[in-house]
Amino acid sequence: MRIDVVTLFPAIFDSYLTQSLLHKAIVRGLVAIERHDLRAWAEDSPHHKVDDKPFGGGPGMLIQVEPTVACVREVETMHPTPARRILLTPQGKRFDQRLAEDLAGSDRLLLLCGRYEGFDQRVQDILEPEEISVGDFVLNGGEVAAMTIIDAVVRLLPGVLGDENSSRDDSFSRGNRLLEFPQYTRPREFEGHSVPEVLLSGDHAAIAAWRAEQTQLRTQARRQDLLGEEPNG
Ligand code: SAM
């Protein structure tokens, strides 16, 4: 997979791209992530200004349509694979595990990160991206939202996780769309809290049954809205 990220603050991704699972996935060639500084497409070249005041008044600035459209069109020509265009906005479709699985099936994503009061509406009208929100709250910019999407999508790519089953059992995932069961590691006992005996029994059938039951109980207690969902939908 290739992911192009259009942003005014490419350095925000510096540490994120050089750590842990994502870094390994990049080094192993499972994903390529390219950042593009929108200011490089500024018409006002000495100041690299890409924002202006909203018509009709109001606080804040908007990212202008000309540099954004020019940037996206040029970035798309940098690689032959057609890109799935995504614009991060709190007004978009809510991101969830199903959408992450859907995006993980794409060969190329192009993520447009907003700043200030967001983009001039004509960016959406002309480029017709999918608009995605990471939740009903407002961030300062789309970069953290883009990282959220990259993180959730890349871990689903074949070969990224050491054990493919670990993403199948994850909460909300294809296995059952419910919450994952509780997990424990050493020590067996800490401050009077013991690991459930069944997990120490070595009886794989009993462990699987306990985990299935815990998944149901936990989902019932915390997220009843997930019960009755189509597991593979
Ligand atoms: N004025 C905009 C509104 O009310 O819809 C919010 C602008 S926000 C301060 C700046 C940028 O952060 C947005 O253009 C978007 O790219 C990003 N952003 C903020 N909240 C987000 C969310 N929940 N999901 C995805 N992107 C978000």
From TrEMBL:
Q: Which Gene3D superfamilies match?
A: 3.40.1280.10, tRNA(m1g37)methyltransferase, domain 2
The signal sequence is none
Residues forming the tRNA methyltransferase TRMD/TRM10-type domain are 1-227
Q: Which GO terms describe its cellular component?
A: cytosol
Subcellular localization? Cytoplasm
Q: What Enzyme Commission number(s) appear in the record?
A: 2.1.1.228
- Enumerate the GO terms in the molecular function aspect: tRNA (guanine(37)-N1)-methyltransferase activity
Where S-adenosyl-L-methionine binds, per the record, is at 114, 134-139
Q: Which GO terms describe its biological process?
A: tRNA N1-guanine methylation
Broadest EC class assigned to this enzyme: transferase
Keyword Methyltransferase in record: yes
The reaction(s) catalysed by this protein are: guanosine(37) in tRNA + S-adenosyl-L-methionine = N(1)-methylguanosine(37) in tRNA + S-adenosyl-L-homocysteine + H(+)
Per its UniProt record, what InterPro entries does this chain match?
Answer: Alpha/beta_knot_MTases, tRNA_m1G_MeTrfase_C_sf, tRNA_m1G_MeTrfase_TrmD, tRNA_m1G_MTases_N, tRNA_MeTrfase_TRMD/TRM10
**Pfam families for this protein:** tRNA_m1G_MT
The UniProt entry lists the main location of this chain as cytoplasm
Q: What does this protein do?
A: Specifically methylates guanosine-37 in various tRNAs.
Family listed:
Belongs to the RNA methyltransferase TrmD family.
What NCBIfam families has UniProt attached to this entry? PRK00026.1, trmD
Question: What interactions and quaternary structure are annotated?
Answer: Homodimer.
Q: Which PANTHER family match?
A: TRNA (GUANINE-N(1)-)-METHYLTRANSFERASE (PTHR46417)
Q: What is this protein called?
A: tRNA (guanine-N(1)-)-methyltransferase
State the organism of origin: Neorhodopirellula pilleata
